[in-house]
Amino acid sequence: MFHSTDAAVVDAAQQALDDASVFGDVEANNLVPFRSGRPYSAALLGRRIALKGSPEFVTEAGRDPNAVSAKHVQSMAGRGLRVVAVAQRELSEHDARRAGEDSQFLEQCCSEGLEAVGLLGLSDTLRPEATQLVRELRGDGRQVRVLTGDHPTTAAAVATELGLDVAREDVVTGPDWENFSRAERRDAVRGSSVFARVTPEQKVEIVQALETDGRVCAMVGDGANDAAAIRVSSVGIGVSSTDSDPARGAADIVLLDGRVGGLTDALDEGSQLWRRVRSAVGVLLGGNAGEVAFALIGSALSGESPLNARQLLLVNLMTDALPAAALAVSTPSENGSEKSEQMDAHALWQTIAVRGGATAIGALAAWLLARASGRRRRASTVALVALVGTQLGQTLLESRSPLVVATVAGSAAVLATLVSTPVVSQFLGCTPLGPIAWGQAVGCASAATLLAALAPRALERIAATEENANGQSTIRKIPTRTSTAYTSRTGGVSARDSVEISDVEIKEAETGESDTLVSVAAGSDTSPNSRATRDES
């Protein structure tokens, strides 16, 4: 059974040659398959070794070091072709018999005395949506990198096709990586977008370097050479294919449908869930923190609690029950911005702090105003209305879905009814309010809600100013979870391309099928559409 690369080459040759007789069935006496650390595959056909591999290997093992034109290789790679060199070697009768029985000896014969025959240029077509996918990921603040075993010029060309502005000299190669110090490796994963001619071991090192630098990586792959890197990444993604058993075994998630858009769908779903959790937790913890702060400050100023036990219970009923539940189940598209939002514990604590601070300020201001112009019970009632009103106003800042609006309006109406009904109001320790008192309560609640709306933006500007002053780049980080990764479909050619997304990172896999792992999830497309071209060296 042909490897998909071999099938594409034979198909192209059959289309180019009129004499089909040259394509008869030939049985190899022995084979040396491609594997990690061996950049070629070879077959022994009688006394002749037929070999295909990297141009660098054929040049090193060839009889003539100038047989493979580096300029020609660069030219083909610059067009985005994966360049494979073809070579042969004639063995003596004795060596041929020994090589047919001993694979190690055949491998030794492949390491010297090769005669370069030509170059194959394999064109791996990106999925139409791959470029859009990378653009969306980068637009959401996620860093994108390419990791591939291909030639550096090919890697740069593919990255450019994906929308990354990368020059050939910006590509970090496997040999470069091997010679880097630890500090240089840290700088490379921070500043370089494309890594070419990397081995499976180097993939593992790059993933580890990224995660040591505080990133969260999702590694995608469908071949044995990706299994180790999939295993060490925060989230390992296996792509289902005929050659993917090791990758699937090492993966946390296996992608079966090959749908590239699944990555952004998964990230959007996670962001929406995170926004709902943050909103609901902010309602509960932030609001309660504000209530406690108001009670403590009021008690310190007056010697007694501003609100009695029944009023505090009423506050919790009006703010913690229905509004928090409505936020938790509100439609995600109506909850926050459309842009994907990354999970960030700092953002959660900031939400709690802002909500708690605004709640305490709104209630305290209303209480002080009413206390200066009226009796204790009136001040307590005004503070109660302002405390509930501030929290309900902030709930509307989080979401304006019909369910949330209905629960907020219902809670406000119930509170107004309870406060304005004489018997019930007296039972709660309140008193019906006049226009001035209602103005004080609603005005303070509105001002505190406005403060809660503006405070996050002000804090972001302050943080950005401090980072710029310190000469630091803004890197958004995610706690221990990552997004998924996806592939791009090529027609018919085995490819070794990759995209890695850090914060969300996507990396490459050796595909034995017809899919090129260009960025994220993929299954295989068994229809051979790839183009193979042959150039004489």
UniProtKB/TrEMBL annotation:
Keywords: Magnesium, Membrane, Metal-binding, Transmembrane, Transmembrane helix. Its main location: membrane. The keyword Transmembrane applies. Residues 469-537 are annotated as: Disordered. Residues 469-491 have a biased composition (Polar residues). SUPFAM superfamilies: Calcium ATPase, transmembrane domain M, HAD-like, Metal cation-transporting ATPase, ATP-binding domain N. GO terms for molecular function: ATP binding; ATP hydrolysis activity; metal ion binding; P-type calcium transporter activity. GO terms for cellular component: plasma membrane. Residues 305-454 form the Cation-transporting P-type ATPase C-terminal domain. It catalyses: ATP + H2O = ADP + phosphate + H(+). It is found in: Membrane. It comes from the Bacteria. The keyword Transmembrane applies. NCBIfam families: ATPase_P-type. This is Cation-transporting P-type ATPase C-terminal domain-containing protein. It comes from Rhodococcus erythropolis (Arthrobacter picolinophilus).
